[in-house]
């Protein structure tokens, strides 16, 4: 049985747009994943206390037969393939960040994975791409993407050509 999942993509080191497009192509070729949609690309300000360049962010929807944890493993493997090193620093610069944002209407919180993604309702760089995919998408425990988006500041987020 297939489940629709939403994946956030971002990065701010090197040729990010090219890397995000290559990561999307790689994910679309993974067994158990079928690309169902891709948002526009956005330039967004960095999040957190570390001074760094702006990010490029996007989101994809996939139909998957993988479990949430198996899908997370694919995302982590893909990050590594594109040079991501997870050194424990949060909110720092990165070559590629892939986040499992939503997995159907599943709610999960264990030592490896939280669904929906924590702080999803607070982040314009997540909500703008999700709204491109499906503004009516329900975020379990939070409401619809379009409603959440109206509550965040998007003024410094720019759609890329």
From TrEMBL:
Keywords: ATP-binding, Folate biosynthesis, Kinase, Nucleotide-binding, Transferase. It comes from Luteibacter jiangsuensis. SUPFAM superfamilies: 6-hydroxymethyl-7,8-dihydropterin pyrophosphokinase, HPPK (SSF55083). Catalyzes the transfer of pyrophosphate from adenosine triphosphate (ATP) to 6-hydroxymethyl-7,8-dihydropterin, an enzymatic step in folate biosynthesis pathway. Its EC number is 2.7.6.3. This is 2-amino-4-hydroxy-6-hydroxymethyldihydropteridine pyrophosphokinase. Belongs to the HPPK family. One of its GO terms (molecular function) is 2-amino-4-hydroxy-6-hydroxymethyldihydropteridine diphosphokinase activity. Residues 90-101 form the 7,8-dihydro-6-hydroxymethylpterin-pyrophosphokinase domain. The keyword Kinase applies. Pathway: Cofactor biosynthesis; tetrahydrofolate biosynthesis; 2-amino-4-hydroxy-6-hydroxymethyl-7,8-dihydropteridine diphosphate from 7,8-dihydroneopterin triphosphate: step 4/4.
């Amino acid at each position: 049985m297939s489940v629709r999942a939403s994946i956030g993509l971002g990065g701010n080191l090197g040729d990010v747009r090219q890397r995000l497009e290559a990561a999307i192509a790689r994910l679309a070729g993974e067994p158990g994943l079928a690309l169902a949609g891709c948002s526009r690309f956005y330039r967004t300000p960095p999040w957190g206390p570390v001074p760094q360049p702006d990010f490029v962010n996007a989101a994809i929807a996939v139909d998957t037969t993988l479990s949430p944890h198996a899908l997370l493993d694919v995302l982590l493997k893909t990050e590594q393939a594109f040079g991501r090193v997870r050194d424990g620093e949060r909110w720092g610069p990165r070559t590629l960040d892939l986040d499992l944002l939503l997995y159907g209407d599943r709610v999960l919180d264990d030592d490896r994975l939280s669904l929906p993604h924590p702080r999803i309702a607070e982040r314009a760089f997540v909500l703008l791409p999700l709204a491109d995919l499906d503004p009516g998408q329900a975020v379990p425990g939070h409401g619809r993407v379009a409603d959440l988006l109206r509550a965040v500041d998007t003024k410094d987020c720019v759609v890329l050509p």
